[in-house]
Write a structure and sequence with these properties.
8-stranded mixed β-sheet; single chain; binds pyrrole-2-carboxylate; alpha/beta; binds flavin-adenine dinucleotide; 10 helices
Length: 415
């Protein structure tokens, strides 16, 4: 649509009246080929790739609140693929490659910025673990390198490299292709692109139950009535185990709050991302200037989108230890999301014992980076009723076979 400067000005003052909808606000139909429960990034990406790559277009995404009101709009947007084991680094690298072309693919600027990510090491053992991961990454074709303290001093001038720090910095693992994206733009972009293929995006529609007959899924009962479906896909992040239980499927997932906060906007001062598991905090600066700071996982289980004050206080201490010059910056907002953590800190992408019921969850503290890759392989899995090869190691079968893929060390957030 063409906008004149005058029209832009007038509509900017119109309190959103007459603004064209980015995607139509659909009402539920009685029946779909595929119902996706959860309108976060992963659910919307799944719908988009189902429609685009597999021609499955009679699809609804059901969201109980608003698009992006869950973790998709609450995360700190770090994107990287430097996981330890080949199974995971291949999956996350697949996703990173999709990020690299996403803005063009969905024709929506997701503000993907490959500003690099440093994971700091504060002890000899931590440096050995980082070196091991870097070596594994290089063998899997993922860009990774070790950076010395002297190079860190040049690259991140405000980082506290004093040997007198409580946890002195001994080096870092670095992924240059890692970075950030604008989380809201990701959900809006996927929603619009999916809707353009005919997918119904239905907000304010809570799934209350999953209907089954003789072990086969038949549809869902929602706050807006019954909807029949041949296939139902659960992509509900913090509520994965709760939702699966409604279909009699028990998942090894626990839900925890994870918190973050942002400062007042400032002039550019940090042009990369710095993470430290030892001190439990990580930081980047958004394009509008806020410092974006994340904490370690709240240890208790919970379903409220906030967390305990001592965790956030601890993260603030960690950031000030790494960047003493930020000690007088004022903080603007704090929030929490509910993340679903699996026993090996890896996702579950799987068929279930109920025919036609699929589950995608357990991304824990690290699923934003996987948004396009997860949607891509999950759409394949649903369309073919067969796991995508990259998803195979992540099926529920691993919890009975014992083939766990331990990624706690690469999780990026202290657990
Ligand atoms: P969500 O956006 O949570 O989508 C699930 C949706 O399901 C929600 O919108 C919810 O309302 C809906 N839903 C739930 N129940 C129902 C129901 N019954 N009926 C209908 N709808 C329902 N990951 C990274 O890779 N990098 C990061 O830097 C990062 N930082 C994070 C920081 C914080 C503070 C948090 C909380 C998470 C962070 N994550 C990060 C993790 C990442 O946000 C999640 O793993 C990922 O967003 C989960 O996928 P999603 O976007 O689809 O989830
Ligand atoms: O997975 O890289 C990550 C991450 C950083 C902050 C939260 N998750």
């Amino acid at each position: 649509m063409h906008y004149s400067a005058w029209r832009l000005f007038k509509e900017g003052l119109s309190n959103h009246q007459n603004w064209p909808e980015t995607w139509p606000d659909a009402s539920p139909k009685r029946r779909y080929d595929v119902v996706i429960v959860g309108g976060g990034g992963h659910g919307l990406a799944t719908a988009y790739y189902l429609a685009k790559n597999h021609g499955v277009r009679n699809v609804a995404v059901l969201e109980k609140g608003y698009i992006g009101g869950g973790n998709a709009g609450r995360n700190t947007t770090l994107i990287r693929s430097n996981y330890l084991w080949g199974e995971s680094s291949k999956l996350y690298e697949h996703s990173l490659k999709l990020w690299e072309g996403l803005t063009q693919d969905i024709n929506y600027n997701v503000m993907f910025s490959q500003r690099g990510i440093y994971s700091l090491g504060h002890s000899l053992q931590e440096m050995r673990d980082l070196e091991r991961r870097v070596n594994a990454n290089v063998l899997s074709g993922v860009d990774a390198e070790i950076i010395s303290p002297a190079d860190l001093r040049d690259r991140i001038p405000y980082l506290n490299l004093s040997s007198k720090a409580r946890y002195p910095i001994m080096g870092a693992a670095y992924q240059a292709r890692g970075g950030t994206a604008r989380h809201d733009a990701v959900v809006w972009g996927f929603a619009r692109a999916a809707a353009q293929y005919g997918v119904d995006i239905i907000q304010g529609c809570e799934v209350l139950d999953i209907e089954r007959e003789d072990g086969v899924v038949k549809g869902v009962l929602t706050s807006r009535g019954e909807i029949k479906a041949d296939k139902v896909a659960l992509v509900v992040a913090g509520h994965t185990s709760v939702m699966a239980r409604k279909a009699g499927v028990r998942l090894p997932i626990s839900s925890h709050p994870l918190q973050a906060f942002v400062s007042e906007p400032m002039k550019p001062v940090l042009d990369t991302v710095v993470m430290s598991n030892a001190v439990h905090g990580y930081i980047s600066q958004s394009d509008k200037g806020d410092l974006v700071i994340g904490a370690g996982l709240d240890p208790y289980n919970g379903y409220s989108q906030r967390g305990s004050p001592h965790i956030i206080e601890h993260a603030a201490q960690a950031i000030i230890e790494m960047f003493p010059c930020f000690s007088r910056v004022r903080m603007n907002r704090q929030w929490g999301g509910i993340v679903d953590v699996s026993p090996d800190s890896c996702p579950i992408i799987s068929k279930t014992e109920v025919r036609g019921l699929y589950v995608n969850g357990g991304w824990g503290t690290g699923g934003f980076k996987a948004t396009p890759g997860s949607g891509h392989v999950f759409a394949h899995t649903i369309a073919h009723d067969q796991l995508h090869p990259l998803a195979e190691p992540f099926s529920l079968a691993r919890f009975t076979s014992g083939h766990l893929i331990d990624e706690y060390g690469a999780a990026g957030v202290a657990h």
